[in-house]
Amino acid sequence: xxxxxxxxxxxxxxxxxxxxxxxxxxxxxxxxxxxxxxxxxxxxxxxxxxxxxxxxxxxxxxxxxxxxxxxxxxxxxxxxxxxxxxxxxxxxxxxxxxxxxxxxxxxxxxxxxxxxxxxxxxxxxxxxxxxxxxxxxxxxxxxxxxxxxxxxxxxxxxxxxxxxxxxxxxxxxxxxxxxxxxxxxxxxxxxxxxxxxxxxxxxxxxxxxxxxxxxxxxxxxxxxxxxxxxxxxxxxxxxxxxxxxxxxxxxxxxxxxxxxxxxxxxxxxxxxxxxxxxxxxxxxxxxxxxxxxxxxxxxxxxxxxxxxxxxxxxxxxxx
Length: 319
Hints:
Blueprint: H1 3-11, E1 21-23, E2 31-32, E3 39-48, H2 59-76, E4 80-90, H3 95-112, E5 115-123, E6 127-136, E7 152-156, H4 161-169, H5 177-188, H6 194-199, E8 207-209, H7 214-225, E9 228-232, H8 240-244, H9 246-249, H10 252-256, E10 263-267, H11 272-276, E11 284-291, E12 295-299
Parallel strand pairs: 4-5, 9-12
Antiparallel strand pairs: 1-2, 3-6, 4-6, 7-10, 7-11, 8-10, 9-11
């Protein structure tokens, strides 16, 4: 099977067809029509076998996650997803693997009405690069640089499950089978908070998705906004499974483990009432406040400073 047969067989026959795509897969470039008075929002992520995922990972889950992590970035901007490009290197053409990979990717694409409009394929070590595009009114975009002193800090969902599952897979800890089954989905098939991000337009100031860990990602908001923050361990939402294993793993799994793909966002007091009217299936919790004094201060359950041993994932940290 050559490259063009591969594209026709696995990627051209996708389930999403949008009216704003004038020319998609099959030409030298896509022709796309962004809506009037909307900003084009663009993001990309690269997943490399052995670095971002285990080489023997379930391909359905891998297809889902490869797209989900990009949709999560759009969600953090309050953007509505529209299109994506896929760049894929494969060691060989494995039809059964590709069928499953496409199943996971296109099932998620269908859910959020996002269309594959192009990309590239090549032979090489397994790696997946996706570039996703969405729309948001310029004045409504959520940005890391928009947090202000006095804002309340919130997160969606719960934190720590994905990192707990990863530590089990790496054999750093041993979870009971039932507990691992309960948290594995958060690692393998995260839910991008697209609808929640769009609902936060006009309500939230600063926002980011939690991919490298709460401390690292909230830290990006603080740095870009020129502010500080205080958060409280006993306010951070965790699942029953993660809470049961806190004594073994410590709070670092929750604070710095990453792969949550929840939203962290800040809201001024005068918008709290509007926020509380929103009905998120995943829920949201207030975990602290933005302060004028720079730095991130973590307080334990007794109100004393907590000094974490890790602050988040660093792609180029020394091994």
